[in-house]
Amino acid sequence: MTTASLVGLVVLGAVASGIGTLIGAGGAFIAVPVLLMARPELSPAAATGAGLFMVLVNATLGAARYARMGRVHFPSAIRFAAATLPGAMAGVWAVRRVSGAGFSALFGGLLLVIAVLLGRRALRAPLPSDDTTTRTRVDPRGVAASAIVGFVATFFGVGGGILQVPILAAWLRYPVPVAVATSLLIAAVTAAVGVATHLATAAGLPDHWPVAAALACGALVGASVGARLSRHVGSRGILLGVAGAFVIAGARLIYAAL
User: Fold this and answer.
1) Full-model pTM
2) Ranges under pLDDT 70 in the chain
3) 86 Cβ contact partners less than 8 Å away, ≥ 6 residues apart
4) Mutual orientation of helices 3-23 and 44-68 as an angle, nearest 10°?
5) Which DSSP category does 139 fall into?
6) Alpha helix locations (H) across the chain?
7) Which of 226, 242, 239, 214 has its CA nearest to residue 11?
8) What are the tens digits of pLDDT across the range 74-85?
9) Is the dihedral of CA 239, 240, 245, 248 positive or negative?
10) What is the pLDDT of residue 206?
C-alpha cells in the first residue's frame, strides 16, 4: 500500500468518524461504502472488519467525551448493548457468505430506508427535547430492537448507530443528544464483539490491518472534533444531515452494484 493510500485512509477515517460522532453512528456508514468503491479487491468481510475496528476506536472516544458532558444514559446503554451481542457474532458469520455486489445492494437499500424514516421524523413536530435532563427510562422495546441491531451492525460493519439513533430518538423518544451519546456507547460494545469475532474466526481483519489501522488513526482526531461540534448543531439539523448523507451513499452503492 502506497503512502498516498494510507494518508487517504487516515483522512477518510477522520472525516467519517467526525460525522459519525456528531450523529451517533460511528462513521463506518461512510467509510465502508467508500472502501467498497475505492478498493474493489476487498471482500465484504474485510471491509466490514476494518469498518468495525474504526467504529470501536471512534465510538469509544466519542462515548467517553459525551459521558463527561453527562449525555449518556447508562442504564439503557448497558441493557441495549448486552442485547446486541448474540446478533453481533452472527453478523460476522453471515457477511462471509454474501457476494460483493449483493452486499453493496443490501447496504444501499438499508441506508435509503433509514434516510426516509429519519427525514420523516425530522420534519414532524415536535421533536424530542434537546434538554439532556429530560427523564429517560429503559424501554423493553429498545432491548428487543437492539437484538436485531447487533446483527445488522456487524453484518454491514457499521457498529449499529445508524439504527440505534433512530430507535432511541424517533421511536423511544429519547432527547436527541442523549440518543446520540448513548448510541455511541452501545456501538462501542457491539463493535468490540464484532472485531473479536472477526479475529477469532480469521475473517476480515488479519490480512488488512493497514487499512483498519489507518482508519482508526483518523478516528482519533475525528471523534474529538465531532463531539465538540455537537454543541452547536440542533436536533433537526442532525437528523436531516444524516438522512441526506444516507440518500447519497445508498443510491451510490445500489448504482455500483447494478
Assistant:
1) 0.82
2) 1, 24, 26, 121, 124-137, 202-207, 233-235, 238
3) 147, 150
4) 50
5) -
6) 3-23, 28-38, 44-68, 74-95, 100-123, 140-155, 161-166, 176-200, 209-229, 235-257
7) 214
8) 999 999 999 999
9) positive
10) 52
